[in-house]
Amino acid sequence: MTKFIFMAFMILTISSVIKALDSTNTRIxxxxxxxxxxxxxxxxxxxxxxxxxxxxxxxxxxxxxxRVVITAAQCLVDIGAIEKLMVVAGANSRTGLDGILYPxxxxxxxxxxxxxxxxxxxxxIIIDNKFDxxxxxxxxxxxxxxxxxxxxxANVVGWGYRExxxxxxxxxxxxxxxxxxxxxxTNYHGPGEITERMICAGYASGGxxxxxxxxxxxxxxxxxLVGLVSWxxxxxxxxxxxxxxxxxxxxxxxxxTIAANM
Length: 262
Description:
Helix content: 10-25%
Subcellular location: Secreted
CATH topology of the largest domain: Thrombin, subunit H
CATH class of the largest domain: Mainly Beta
GO biological process, one term: protein processing
Protein name: Putative trypsin eta-like protein
Pfam families: Trypsin
Distance between the termini: 34 Å
Shape: globular
Number of domains: 2
Strand content: 25-35%
Family: Belongs to the peptidase S1 family.
Structural class: mainly beta
Largest sheet: 6 strands, antiparallel, barrel
Radius of gyration: 17 Å
CATH superfamily of the largest domain: Trypsin-like serine proteases
Strand order of the largest sheet: 8-9-10-13-12-11
């Protein structure tokens, strides 16, 4: 998506503008194909703008409970009144019907989410029917209650671009990336860019990272959900680790929002 920066917006910092441009549709570079049985909590979120359109993969998410998916807020804002969401669980393919389809009943983005700062980048989708947890390819994931130690390897999963300018992967892929200290990440991205609701991961040398096409996808450490793909400067660039929503920092919002809407 291309945006033009007008002089009227110069009151915003240049770094915030760049971040807003780079934040959407992030995904996997330098990874390898994997199987959904290894990440059965991962779902494809697909959108349809008219009744005649096919559903198309746009974001990813993680199954939290029998009717709830956690994803990025940017996947849920500005959805038109006639648009529909479909959650596909148990799927290896980004475009096929190898998974089980679950229509979305409602979706809620965090009320403090900002497309400029990409802070509070979290939301939930409530599906119409319960996930079938008897299926080997479908199960929930718990939220890790602490940040992994700097340098520990976490896994990112998704279907998006294999390199910065495409193409997207047709099948689910994974990549391992090291957790980056928030102060170090701030040095890379600039003062004020990294908040307590974010966590960074990536190699200083680049080459392996998330990229365009899988915003909301899970960052997983020891089988627990740590983050959601949120924003970055391009894909797999040296000295620009990707930034993820730190899910535990927003767990109270998740649980309170579920309680208020179910």
